[in-house]
């Protein structure tokens, strides 16, 4: 396992940082993209806003130059802009799709050539249970995250013969900055609806991502793996 180059977008905090740490602990050479502040850890950090094709191209180029071709890609960078559709501006819809879905697409397209050449690769996209069950106030986010599922499954069919797996992880409620902003009352109600009775940790998600990138997961592709405390009961 050691010696692989792994790239995690949005690896400066939250779930992305936990994923970067888990891959590093498994022996990978890890690079993270960050848009604002760098990660607290000593990973190679490259500046990149995933809504810019140029920045994605440059960032992956820097990683390849420093660590070699990317063998493991985790497309994690994401945002929410919640509102009911009747009150949602078109920009809020487009920004969420551009970051969550198109950001992942740009990263995959830029790293894919190296994987195809090596006839090996591991791609994991971070989606959400909202993609599968829908979520009031999140039509933009759920549409973008559901788009990632169709993208991943189509790509899995295109790349399977080259030993490149493409999987999706769908977290439920996870304790990060993204959910910290929710009112305490809503957090309590949300946790109460989770069969395991709590929000998950970034490390809960990271452990699943790490497994999906492992040699042992080599016969899993096109899967959507929920890490949601049972809220979707496997869906
Ligand atoms: P955070 O808000 O803690 O972190 C989001 C990360 O995405 C940050 O690193 C942020 O960078 C990065 N990011 C956002 N926009 C861009 C952009 N345009 N270009 C580059 N990087 C960007 O969120 P989480 O850690 O909670 O979320 C990580 C992923 O998990 C997201 O895709 C999210 O949708 C998904 N998820 C989270 C859930 C949760 O409950 N927390 C549930 C289901 C899915 P910066 O620091 O520069 O802002």
TrEMBL record:
UniProt keyword list: Oxidoreductase
KW Chloroplast (keyword) present: no
Domain of life: Bacteria
InterPro entries: KR_dom, NAD(P)-bd_dom_sf, Sc_DH/Rdtase_CS, SDR, SDR_fam
One GO-annotated biological process of the protein: monocarboxylic acid metabolic process
SMART domains: PKS_KR (SM00822)
Pfam families recorded: adh_short_C2
Gene3D superfamilies: NAD(P)-binding Rossmann-like Domain
All copies of domain Ketoreductase, residue ranges: 4-176
Endoplasmic reticulum listed as a keyword: no
Listed GO MF terms: oxidoreductase activity
Family: Belongs to the short-chain dehydrogenases/reductases (SDR) family.
PANTHER family: 3-OXOACYL-(ACYL-CARRIER-PROTEIN) REDUCTASE, 3-OXOACYL-[ACYL-CARRIER-PROTEIN] REDUCTASE FABG
Protein name: 3-oxoacyl-[acyl-carrier protein] reductase
Organism of derivation: Streptomyces wuyuanensis
